[in-house]
Please model this.
Amino acid sequence: MKISLYSILLCFLFSCTTSVKEELPLFKAEAFETNIAGKQVSLYTLHSGNGLTMQVTNYGGRIVSLWVPDKDGKYEDVVFGFESIDNYINHQGERYLGPVIGRYGNRIANAKFELDGVEYQLPANDNGNTLHGGPQGFDDQVWTVDKVSDNSIQMSYTSPDGEEGFPGTVKTVMTYELNMNNEFVINYKSTTDKPTHINLTNHSQFNLKGAGNGDILDHMLTINASHITPVDSVLIPTGEITSVEGTPFDFRMATLIGKRIDEDNVQLNKGKGYDHNWVVDKTEENKVELIATVYEPQSGRVMEVLTDQPGVQIYTGNFFTGEVMGKYNKPLHHRGAIALEVQKFPDTPNQPNFPTTRVNPGEVYTQTCIYKFSVAK
Model:
């Protein structure tokens, strides 16, 4: 077989990623094919064309695996998850591994809010509050696959009026795309026929050493944020916006996640580590900007987070115990992953000084989140 110089150059430039991908232990679609309430569930594999491979199920729009090369070209799957759809449906002790979160990401105090003089009661499942849209939130739904290609998938879901107590029929279209810049791009678009609250996010949990390969305390974290929204004993915002200056929450310069996580700090004690919303230092409202960077020195992997949202919830896997087994026969270690959930602030429906999450008929809710992967030079 004749090999052209052009082919050799392409192989060099992209580190022969095509042949490497073929050797990745990707999950078989059969392990994810099932029927839930008359809706078909399956598994889809996407490629960036420049080194990334991702597998997605339309059950909750979950990121099942995300393979990223290190500085030596060695691949690891960097997201927590399970090897079959049964484990996701039954949660196996851990529910929020890689899904879309909605209608409302994060917590709503006392599981209720008032809108235009009407009080809406929501399911209470987290210390009397509502967490991540409720027990039948967007992560528990089978999304319709509208389009799929080698590098992208478009899914949609229509949430009926009154679902989990929220007003309005909300139609959401969500696109996952891998591009040649090794970016995992998420775009959301939602409309409603009644005034309501919408706050979507993705709950992938990352370990840049590879899922199950120890903790993330040795990862370096940078957050472009000068303030947080402090919380009470059940992790509901107090309504304050406080400076990170002189606190363990100051990540404006790259800092080891584990350096201060166990300090005797009121907020750290409440979250059992980091489980807080940072107020992003935006240069322009609604503009997609770099807001955080995670760097793992051993592998050299870097993940940059870009978004148009005003907040990011950082969660450092404080409630993992290591008792639940994840993929590849590896446990979900305590502090074994970090989630960076871009969003508006928690409990915004009950906090008038926070950026609004209200969406009216005729308006379109949009959001962009980008996780960009590279290696340190």
